[in-house]
Design goal:
The protein has 725 residues and is mainly beta. Helices cover 7% and strands 43% of the residues. The strands form five sheets. It has a 26-stranded mixed β-sheet that branches. It has a 21-stranded parallel β-sheet. A 14-stranded parallel β-sheet has the order 9-11-14-17-20-23-26-29-32-35-38-41-44-47, covered by helices on one side.
Length: 725
């Protein structure tokens, strides 16, 4: 053994000073903390983690060098087993444990007679002496406690021991590289790894919730680790008998905890969710990956009953239900630059009731998605629904999608309030591509508001003639509102016969299923600027207002009102109303290139409208108003057509005993061909007894009789014949 004296340095020896102090007196005078300082400064202590990435010298090499003995120092290298077997009373020496992975300085603590041996920070010798590890870092190492991390050994007890000890010391727990096989762990302190160590479930047949949990904790951080639930392998062929037949565990559960931070972690290979956050407050998940969740509820992330949860730059992939879920009584959730991809083998395919979705929020409120991407999910990219089980902290559950992208999902976005729980949905700057249904809206509460602003929708089908819809809307509440503004649509490659057909549900914007709501469309166009936007209402009674848009309307079956301002219409036949339609129709500052068929008992007003028709195209108005005060008005309109090749441009057919009045005021009728005709006309009023008035109108004199009433041609009073060529 070396001498019990601490020798002076060479300068002191040269000065003839031979003072010596015993190690026992030194330790007694400076205490355990002072000893830690001595160990780290005088002996050149260096972390086992070297430069912070796991590389560098071991502590032994740092203190003693390579191949250099320890003679002449007061630090004694020793094996852990030898120190534990020591029968000597308290030594005043500083010991250095040399076991691989467990290196470190220990000193005796004569004042402690009760601490138990935990291998990592306290070693009790055969003589009963408590030797304490000198720790100069803010963490302890899981391997100090004997954990192997070899992917074979059951490290459960040792890891739990390390966690408990670290928590008692208010320190973090460090995991060097390796795979630590465990089950039934409860975390009490922060964990981290520089080398991406893995903690893996070694009891896949046990309770799937109990592999690894944070429960009732506050202020824990987890960084750089992989957590593996050890799910059983996928079936060779998925079926109704095996889609939910998996063993394994949830990779990570956070329950009833606050201020939890997860960063640069991987959660993988789970039954149900790889990461579950339940009944928590203030949880942040940053730069994490969640992959391979299996079973009927195979979600990458499941948040339930929690508030103030943030996901930033996270990836969810390869799941059999949903990428990111917000459920039951959750509020104030945000997802920023998150990616959900490859949702597959949803149970709905095999007799179950669950769909694949990238991002799903239900029974929740105040949820925001910013710059998120949902790709290649069997059902939808994004789905939001307030649900009956939300907190109702606000009158309307708010959902915001800002600059999000949906790629190759059946539906890009679904906003569904089918249970009438009231929501507010805002999609701004979002892009849907590769979907058959771009956005689906179901608004059923009078205060529901859905806003789509500056969104782009590109449709794609896998077979000719397949149904495709840019925005499909339903909802049975007449006071709810859907606003679509500054949006662009790309229906290139679609079956245009279906888009133009009144019998098909294909279209850019389609209202269906007895829908009742206020729909506002403003400044919407197609990517191909020569193509109109196909707008349809096959059934239902919406209140429709459209402005500054290029439209084709194959069928607007019924409505609470239809109002068009500064719109352009292109198509062979635009159909408005049916025999059950009772509301008014108004056009203001519009251009019409194609025929129109209007049927309603309500007022019809064309104000400052240009009609430029060709061939057999006409404006056909058929009504059974039975009210003389329901006017049909053309004010400051211009009508253009080659009358010589096709008779009349306007056909008015008022049915019933009491016929309303038709008024033409300040209108111009122009014969494009400049060929004189005495048999064709501009306006045909089919039924005798229909009242009509012309005021300040002008007709091209090539059409010698610009009005036909029943079978009689005439020049109406209030109309001036001019040479307009």
């Amino acid at each position: 053994m070396p001498s019990d004296t601490f020798e002076s340095d060479s300068g002191m020896q040269q000065a003839g000073i031979e003072n010596r102090i015993s190690r026992r007196k030194l330790i007694a005078s400076i205490g355990i903390v002072g000893a830690a300082t001595v160990a780290s400064t005088m002996f050149g202590q260096k972390s086992v983690f070297g430069n912070g990435n796991g590389n560098g010298n071991t502590v032994t090499q740092s203190v003693y060098g390579s191949g250099v003995g320890w003679a002449g120092t007061c630090c004694i290298p020793i094996k852990l087993a030898d120190l534990r077997a020591s029968s000597e009373p308290l030594s005043d020496d500083l010991y250095y444990i040399t076991d691989a992975g467990q290196e470190g300085h220990f000193i005796g603590d004569a004042s402690d007679t009760v601490s138990t041996d935990n291998t990592g920070t306290v070693v009790v010798s055969a003589s009963g002496v408590r030797y304490k590890r000198i720790i100069t870092t803010d963490f302890v190492n899981v391997k100090w406690f004997g954990a192997k991390g070899d992917g074979l050994t059951d490290d459960t007890v040792l890891v739990q021991n390390a966690d408990n000890t670290a928590a008692a010391l208010s320190k973090r727990l460090y995991f060097p590289s390796g795979t630590y096989m465990t089950y039934g762990l409860l975390l009490h302190t922060s964990w981290f790894s520089y080398e991406g160590a893995t903690v893996k479930n070694n009891s896949p047949g046990s309770n799937r919730y109990n592999f690894l949990r944070i429960t009732g904790q506050n202020g824990i951080e987890i960084a750089g680790l992989t957590f593996d639930g050890a799910v059983s392998p996928d079936p060779v062929a998925w079926s109704s008998s095996n889609y939910d037949s998996f063993t394994g565990a949830l990779a990570f559960v956070v329950y009833s905890s606050s201020n939890i931070h997860l960063q640069q972690c991987v959660f993988q290979n789970s039954v149900m969710s790889t990461l579950r956050v339940e009944s928590c407050n203030s949880v942040t998940v940053v730069d994490c990956t969640m992959r391979k969740a299996r079973g009927n509820f195979g979600d990458a992330v499941y948040v339930v009953g929690s508030r103030n949860v943030k996901f930033d730059r996270c990836l969810a992939e390869d799941y059999t239900r949903i990428g990111f879920v917000s459920e039951s009584k959750s509020t104030n959730l945000s997802y920023s630059q998150c990616y959900a991809r490859f949702g597959h083998d949803q149970s709905k395919l095999y007799g179950g009731g669950e769909y694949n979705t990238g991002f799903w929020a239900e029974n929740s409120e105040n949820v925001t998605y910013s710059q998120c991407v949902a790709e290649n999910n069997t059902q939808s990219g994004f789905t939001v629904a307030p649900g009956a089980n939300r907190l109702h902290e606000s009158a309307a559950a708010a959902f915001v999608l800002d600059s999000c992208i949906a790629i190759d999902n059946l539906y890009g976005v679904i906003a569904d309030d089918s249970l009438a729980n009231c929501f507010s949905v805002t999609c701004s700057g979002c892009y849907v591509t590769g979907s058959r249904y771009g956005v689906a809206v179901n608004a059923c509460h009078p205060n529901d508001v859905v806003r789509l602003n500056e969104c782009s929708i590109q449709l794609r089908v896998s077979a000719p003639g397949q149904l495709a819809v840019g925005i499909i809307c339903s909802g049975n509440e007449s006071q709810s509102t859907i606003q679509i503004s500054n949006c662009t649509f790309d229906h290139n490659g679609m079956d245009m016969n279906a888009f133009a057909s009144s019998a098909s549900s294909s279209g850019d914007i389609v209202v269906y299923n007895q829908a009742k709501f206020h729909m506002h469309i403003d400044r919407c166009t197609c990517v191909a600027t020569s193509e109109p936007l196909y707008l349809k209402a096959l059934n239902g009674t919406p209140l429709l207002k459209a402005a500054n848009s290029f439209l084709a309307i194959p069928m607007l079956f019924n409505f609470l009102g239809a109002y068009f301002d500064n719109c352009k219409f292109l198509g062979n036949n635009h159909v408005f109303g049916g025999f059950s339609a009772t509301a008014e129709i108004q056009f203001h500052k519009c251009s019409v290139f194609g025929g129109m068929h209007l049927t309603t008992t309500g007022r019809i007003l064309f104000d400052d409208v240009r009609f430029a028709l060709s061939g057999t195209q006409m404006i056909f108005i058929a009504r059974t108003a039975e009210n003389k005060n329901i006017l049909l008005e053309f004010v400051n309109c211009r009508f253009e057509k080659d009358i010589d090749t096709s008779d009349y441009i306007v056909r008015i057919q008022e049915e019933g005993t009491i016929k309303p009045t038709t008024l033409f005021k300040g209108c111009v009728f122009y014969n494009v061909n400049d060929v004189i005709t005495s048999t064709n006309t501009f306006v045909w009023i089919v039924r005798a007894g229909t009242n009509y008035y012309y005021s300040e109108c002008f007709s091209d004199d090539t059409v010698q009789k610009p009005l036909k009433v029943n079978t009689s041609l005439t020049i109406p009073s209030g109309n001036v014949m001019l040479d307009l060529h």
